[in-house]
């Protein structure tokens, strides 16, 4: 045990913080995307500064909540299924299938969140419609 | 130091494996995407089984190399800039801006790789063209 170094100690702290951050993001995502309560989710989980990289949404928790409210109004059956969750340092990464309704083939999404002190403070995503046909039998997830 | 548990020991091993896996993926990506040697990259870094989730590419290292060779022939200035790299367990995640030439606004990509014994054995991605305009001043990265 004496061979442990400061760097390895940092990895332990990071791994523990990562598990907590994953839990924060999972609760945020479920409340906003599937319980359809984006205002409550933003108030509970997003920090006072929220830097947005999705090109359709302005900075800040209110812009996020307003955007998602409008999308839920347009697609009342909007639903996200989280396929994988990863964390590294203060980032949490989700691999998600989002569907507007049961008949929608859906979109593949990766969301990247940066957290500070248990709050979500920055967000990036990449979104691709799932095509009808594929060159392999594996699906996008 | 005696308070360390088996679970924390696993986190240390995972963090160390994660750093090695990141290095493998960075070398693979540079050789294939920027040095434009996909056959060499596939032979050196991809496992004997390679499960592909990009819907345009069949399973296996040869299908990957052939696909990228054709794309490089079409876009001789094809270039990828890795903006972020993450790892969790046996996965490595890249956040990338890919451009076909210097005038291309480019595409935002997240690649997810699964590694076994230092070889890349599975790949998922999500790809989105970068739009001209954005509701925020931050860019997609």
Question: What can you see in these coordinates?
Answer:
The first copy, chain A, has 141 residues and is an alpha+beta fold. Chain A is built from 3 helices and 5 strands. Chain A has helices at residues 6-34, 38-45, 61-74, and strands at 46-52, 79-88, 91-99, 107-116, 119-129. A 5-stranded mixed sheet of chain A has the order 1-5-4-3-2. In chain A, β4 (107-116) and β5 (119-129) form a beta hairpin. The radius of gyration of chain A is 17 Å and the shape is globular. Chain A starts with 5 loop residues before the first helix and ends in a 12-residue tail after the last strand. Mean pLDDT of chain A is 92; it is low at 1-7. At the A-B interface, α1, β2, β3, β4 and β5 of A face α1, β2, β3, β4 and β5 of B.
